[in-house]
């Protein structure tokens, strides 16, 4: 009976019988070896393992959207302004809904930047800025309206 080993790229695991190997949730791309093979093979290339993958769709691999040049560019650049501090202040002192929208977008800026998605980072920075400023200016507008009403009220003697 064959005993199979599989590797995650760093460590190897096994030995396993074919039945035990089915329980390991290996993928078509997982490297597999057994005595008699000259080298590690992808599990999907071995005919005797094909029954493991009958009802399992192939794994989805994300295309590499960013080249090494893009990675090098991120190392030489600074991430866009996150607006996180400003969003938190607007949430606490001005407008809860707009401040939270600013925080949500601000939290995505650096993660997008360091993932190599410069455009995404800039987009989230713009959104964070927009919601933060909208919350701030609405607060300023409400305060101004209240002051105007107060001045008019006191000038007309309503508060006497």
Percentage beta strand: 5-15%
Query: What is the gyration radius calculated from CA atoms?
Result: 29 Å
Query: How many β-strand runs?
Result: 4
**How many structural units, i.e. domains?**
2
Whole-number mean pLDDT: 82
The separation of the N and C termini measures 100 Å
Note poorly predicted spans: 66-70
Element order: H for helix, E for strand: EEHEEHHHH
Lateral strand order in the biggest sheet? 2-1-3-4
The helix/strand class is alpha+beta
Q: Sketch the major β-sheet.
A: 4 strands, antiparallel
Helical amount: 40-55%
Describe the oligomeric state of these chains in a short phrase.
single chain
Shape: rod-shaped
Q: What is the count of helical runs?
A: 5
Report on this structure:
- With 160 residues, the chain is of the alpha+beta class.
- It has two domains: 4-53, no CATH class; 78-155, no CATH class.
- The protein contains five helices and four strands; from the N terminus they run ββαββαααα.
- A four-stranded antiparallel beta sheet has the order 2-1-3-4.
- Helix 3 (84-93) packs antiparallel against helix 4 (96-114).
- It is rod-shaped and about 100 Å long.
- The model is unreliable at 66-70 (pLDDT under 50).
Summed up, what is this model?
Helices cover 51% and strands 9% of the residues.
Structural key phrases:
160 residues, alpha+beta, 4-stranded antiparallel beta sheet, 4 strands, 9% strand, rod-shaped
């Amino acid at each position: 009976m064959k005993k199979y080993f599989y590797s995650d790229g760093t460590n190897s695991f096994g030995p396993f019988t074919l039945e035990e190997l089915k329980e390991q949730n290996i993928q078509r791309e997982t490297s597999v070896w057994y005595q008699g093979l000259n080298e590690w093979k992808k599990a999907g290339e071995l005919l005797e393992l094909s029954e493991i993958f009958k009802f399992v769709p192939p794994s989805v691999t994300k295309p590499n959207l960013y080249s090494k040049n893009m990675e090098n560019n991120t190392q030489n650049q600074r991430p866009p302004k996150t607006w996180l501090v400003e969003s938190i202040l607007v949430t606490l002192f001005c407008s809860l809904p707009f401040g939270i929208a600013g925080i949500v977008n601000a939290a995505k800026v650096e993660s997008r930047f360091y993932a190599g998605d410069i455009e995404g980072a800039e987009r989230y920075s713009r959104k964070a800025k927009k919601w933060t400023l909208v919350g701030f200016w609405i607060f300023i507008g409400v305060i101004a309206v209240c002051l105007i009403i107060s001045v008019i009220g006191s000038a007309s003697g309503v508060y006497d």
